[in-house]
Amino acid sequence: MKNIKKSQFQTADGSPTLYMEKFDEYYHSKHGAVQEAEHVYLKMGLEHWINLHPNIKKCHVFEMGFGTGLNALLTEQKATQLLLDIDYYSIEAYPLTPIELNEVNYNDYLGAKAKGVFDCIIKAPWEILYPVTTHFSLKKMNCRLENYIPEATIDVLYYDAFGARTQPEIWEDHCFKPLVDKLNPGGVFVTYAAKGSVRRALQNLGLEVALVPGPPGKREMIQAYRPLL
Ligand SMILES: C[S@@+](CC[C@H](N)C(=O)[O-])C[C@H]1O[C@@H](n2cnc3c(N)ncnc32)[C@H](O)[C@@H]1O
Description:
Radius of gyration: 16 Å
Number of domains: 1
Oligomer: single chain
CATH class: Alpha Beta
Bound molecules: S-adenosylmethionine
CATH superfamily: Vaccinia Virus protein VP39
């Protein structure tokens, strides 16, 4: 997001994140950026889906809020580790510049191999599904959630918006509907939030909603599931 000041912040697990003054928001939990992403999106989201569907070898992940690309990077690692083909679609209203992205230095925390993949994620063209690695293709879309029309069905949905305190408009019922309507039977929705209004909105859209243990610093988070037909 050009001309909007962001500064780097080292989170409690040693991994970096960004702080955006405009919204007075961090891109990740101050208690640990990588720990939060691994817990909320990988463990409770993607790995939960894999456990439910051990024989499916292709997965469509959708992410609300591409941000620094951390969730995309960790998802690529899981795809490569498990030889699971993942198409990863992600929307972002305010893309960070390549310079800002390069400054978020995950490789000190995740190692040199991650750096190579992260470089590819940063350089991947926007608006096309681009093969980043053998098992991981990425489509980054510069688009506001409010205007986005999902194009394909979704197996795992990462809802990683800024908090309702600063952006209440993207936690309203009507924001979830177009995405959740595309969630396949057996599909999983995860977010770090635990708000009652979000739980009720997802239930009204036909999902089974659970509160599960949250990442460090957060007692609970939402994990939801589209029942099989
Ligand atoms: C919590 S951060 C996402 C962090 C990201 N998933 C990562 O791994 O670094 C929330 C993101 O949502 C983006 N955002 C804010 N409002 C949006 C909107 N209306 N539509 C799409 N993206 C939005 C912000 O610019 C920010 O990058």
